[in-house]
């Protein structure tokens, strides 16, 4: 079983002046520096560690928590560029290499990139790749309309935001459906709008239908209660102000406050809404 690039519970076999040797099964001994060994542990105890390879290819361990593990996507910053590639900050003392042939686009020092961590077959070391097309769209896109999915923002395009759906497929969130701030590496929940015949996927950020309006209505009531029963937003308010406050469209906002008005919970004016007394 491969353990490189993953977090494991390993048994302490021996403690010496330099550190501890852990039982890595078929990988042999795994070295953990003494400064990272918890004081209360001794030989025979298990310790939770992240396993990686040192510069000589020997398995080592750290109790530090990495920003990502083998098989995961993460936004990592390029700390150094040299003749073999870019070294990215993994959140531990050991950086992870993104070889030049795995860089798309070519990386620059100080910039952050969405990458996937993989195990290089030749060196048997944990590496990073920003050539995300190698890892997604490998299976048919079988999603139901309005199915809830997990998204990772991968890129900004002329049409909208390219996202990774359930870490398996590329999808697109078009600009005219975006009502919240989005940035590369961001994780969020989305909903399948449509899967085309060529497996291209359109994604929505807001829950479709009346469930979304109901949820938005609850958010509006909560905001009113936090602001002494008054908000300077109404039927005629600027759509950008509504977007900034509730991360939604003006159309959805009007539907939500209309529903609250019918329930006799709020009063609506052109540029404001207020809670009706005794109707909270």
Automatic annotation (TrEMBL):
Classification via Gene3D superfamilies: Nucleic acid-binding proteins, Winged helix-like DNA-binding domain superfamily/Winged helix DNA-binding domain
Organism domain of life: Bacteria
Domain Conserved virulence factor B first S1: 4-64
Protein name in the entry: GntR family transcriptional regulator
Family membership: Belongs to the CvfB family.
Record organism: Pseudoalteromonas rubra
Regions that span the bilayer: none
Domain named Conserved virulence factor B-like winged helix: residues: 218-275
């Amino acid at each position: 079983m491969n353990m490189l690039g993953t977090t494991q519970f390993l048994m302490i076999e021996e403690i010496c002046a330099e550190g501890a040797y852990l039982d890595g099964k078929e990988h042999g001994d795994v070295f953990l520096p003494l400064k990272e060994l918890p004081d209360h542990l001794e030989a025979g105890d298990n310790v939770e560690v992240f396993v990686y390879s040192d510069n000589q290819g020997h398995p080592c361990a750290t109790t530090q928590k990495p920003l990502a593990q083998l098989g995961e996507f993460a936004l990592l910053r390029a700390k150094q560029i040299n003749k073999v590639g870019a070294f990215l900050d993994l959140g531990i003392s050991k950086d992870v290499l993104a070889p030049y042939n795995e860089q798309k686009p070519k990386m620059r020092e100080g910039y952050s990139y969405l990458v996937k961590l993989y195990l290089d077959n030749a060196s048997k070391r944990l590496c990073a790749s920003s050539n995300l097309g190698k890892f997604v769209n490998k299976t048919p896109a079988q999603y139901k309309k309005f199915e809830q999915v997990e998204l990772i923002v991968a890129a900004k395009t002329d049409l909208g935001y390219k996202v990774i759906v359930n870490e398996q497929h590329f999808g697109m969130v078009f600009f005219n459906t975006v009502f919240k701030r989005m940035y590369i590496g961001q994780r969020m929940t989305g909903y399948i709008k449509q899967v085309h015949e060529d497996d291209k996927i359109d994604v929505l950020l807001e829950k479709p239908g009346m469930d979304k309006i109901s949820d938005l209505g609850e958010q509006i009531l909560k905001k009113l209660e936090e602001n002494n029963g008054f908000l300077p937003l109404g039927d005629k308010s600027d759509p950008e102000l509504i977007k900034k406050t509730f991360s939604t469209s003006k159309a959805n906002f009007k539907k939500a406050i209309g529903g609250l008005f019918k329930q006799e919970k709020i009063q609506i004016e052109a540029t404001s809404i207020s809670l009706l007394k005794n109707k909270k």
